[in-house]
Amino acid sequence: MHEIQYRVGGPVQGHFPGHHRSSRGESGFEFRGHASLLDAPDPRRLDLHASLRDPFGGWRVRIHAQRMSVPVTMVVDLSASMGFEGARRKLDVVADFTDSLAWSAWRTGDSFGFIGCAAQVEPALLQPQTRQRGTGSVLAHTLRHWQPTGRSAEGLLQAPQHLSRQRSLVFLVSDFHLPLPLIERVLDGLSAHEVVPVVLWDPLEFGPDARRGLLTVVDPESGRQRLVWWRPALRARWQAARTAHRAALMQALQTRRLQPLVIEGGFDADAVTRHFYA
Prior knowledge:
It is built from seven helices and eleven strands. The chain has helices at residues 48-53, 90-108, 135-144, 180-189, 203-206, 232-255, 269-277, and strands spanning 17-20, 30-36, 60-65, 72-77, 112-117, 121-130, 169-174, 194-201, 213-218, 225-230, 261-264. The two termini are 22 Å apart.
């Protein structure tokens, strides 16, 4: 199993010991600063050198912080477009990601949760926060056999209801082939947490298409079919629309100060680690 090394941007406010920097937990070993003995009445942590330097002659004690755990959650788009199969089936890539991230969270001491969303939150792919080993393997097996049929991803708007009250590290996984207003509402709904947008694309989705003639085009999200004459001018309009959507998506993420993790093709745990430490 390939492990992912991740980190959060600021001090966590957890209640369980873990790996991440925190601003609480007086029994920790990480020095945080000094305080007056009256504010932190623990003479065992008295710092004589700091007390002698105090201009007001007060007694100073050392304040420490304990490293804490953070909830790690995957919020995954299970709409019909996620069933696309090019170089690899998208949900197989999500399954690899889930297995690796759940294993990494268990190794780090963090809890792991999973919320699969189509038109609604899917009960079969809803995993509350757990520290149980092997959860990712079970979810990955379900994802590899899942046939997405949802005609929308409106269930992503319900995801915050299933998240921990504690600020969590949330991986929002989708191909983002969704209306931009819906994407913005989903991002705003998750703003109380630290969000990593995972943009899942396949090279065949945006590659050149040299076909010409009469074709039946199917929208996987709505299920609508349309007979079109595929010609160079129409292909150019389609590619321009794709490029415009990608630019609008990146602008929406940049506005919210979110750095996307783009996965094109297969899953690479090292690439995910580089996203956090680049």
